[in-house]
Write a structure and sequence with these properties.
This protein is 31% helix and 13% strand. The protein contains seven helices and ten strands. Strands 3-2-1-6-7-8-9 form a seven-stranded mixed beta sheet. Strands 5-4-10 form a three-stranded antiparallel beta sheet, with no helix packed on it. α6 crosses α7. The site of iron/sulfur cluster has 14 residues, from α4.
Length: 278
């Protein structure tokens, strides 16, 4: 059965890629990264490093998919047409703040990886049934709540850091070759190996960010922050997509460029399931 690493370019999934390439885990067949168009500059630098490392160390082949560009699509949000929403914020008619449905992870990441597997790994035509395939995800013990069942019968979600596999039937099986680890164990592993630690990966405009994360981006990655401001302005008027009140990246429903971020308050933020942030 094919073993595919869902490479999100964050700390955990990149560690799975490196461990598998180095023989510390069984060797997977492929790693696939779906680039939604605007990860942080540090993530693209790390991707360059990883592609070089792969060549020098006979690492598992990495496919970088750029079939769909969420950044471009959001910049053109005023165009009529189908709208894939990110978890941005808007005020309801009663003044309360609501979050839009998150469709971006499924459409710009999970589906892109699934299509790559169908088209390039198995060479199948659209609509063909894919053979059973293990998809490896970099979820660590401290994030066990993010483990999920696949929606498709051909996928077996495989969690090397949890020691579990999940199936569409909702069955769960123990993974015999697991390497249970927390995120901080994984960080220690990079340090012991002398490997650079990847930055947290996500779209620069992802609304799943605490004030502290926004403030750090504004201070240390001003170009990424400017990109986020451009998206914030581009999505404000999404009436062509059927959203009648203004849309914002920040949950205060104020323009990103004008916000004095509260860096003291530590906030817990949900994260995408699937391939974002890991
Ligand atoms: S990082 Fe955020 S904006 Fe990007 S695909 Fe994931 S949820 Fe959507």
């Amino acid at each position: 059965m094919k073993q595919i690493i869902s490479l999100g370019m964050g700390v955990q999934s990149t560690a799975i890629y490196l461990m598998s390439s180095m023989g510390e885990l069984p060797r997977a067949d492929h790693a696939i990264f779906s680039d939604t168009g605007k990860e942080g500059a540090a993530t693209y630098q790390y991707l360059d490093f990883l592609l070089g490392w792969q060549k020098e160390n006979d690492g598992i082949p990495i496919a970088v998919c750029r079939d769909r560009n969420l950044h471009e699509d959001l910049l053109n949000a005023e165009r009529p047409g189908r709208f894939t929403s990110i978890p941005a914020f808007t005020k309801n008619d009663d003044g309360s703040v609501g979050m839009l449905r998150r469709q971006c992870t499924a459409e710009y990441k999970i589906t892109v990886v699934d299509n790559y597997i169908r088209d390039h790994i198995y060479g199948l035509s659209k609509g063909s049934r894919r053979p059973k395939t293990q998809i490896w995800h970099g979820i660590t013990l401290d994030e066990i709540g993010r483990m999920s069942q696949p929606y498709e019968a051909w996928k077996i979600n495989t969690y090397p850091f949890l020691g579990q596999m999940t199936f569409k039937t909702e069955a769960t099986e123990r993974l015999s070759w697991a390497r249970p680890m927390t995120r901080s164990d994984v960080v220690q592993w990079y340090i012991l190996q002398g490997l650079p630690i990847p930055p947290k990966s996500s779209c620069v405009f992802c609304p799943y960010q605490s004030d502290k994360a926004w403030a750090l981006k504004k201070k240390h990655s001003p170009e990424d922050f400017r990109d986020a401001v451009r998206i914030d302005e581009a999505i404000r008027n999404s009436t062509a997509k059927g959203i009648h009140n203004p849309v914002y990246l920040h949950r205060s429903c104020r323009p990103l460029a004008t916000i004095a971020f509260d860096v003291i308050k530590e906030e817990e933020w949900g994260e995408c399931s699937g391939n974002c942030h890991v």
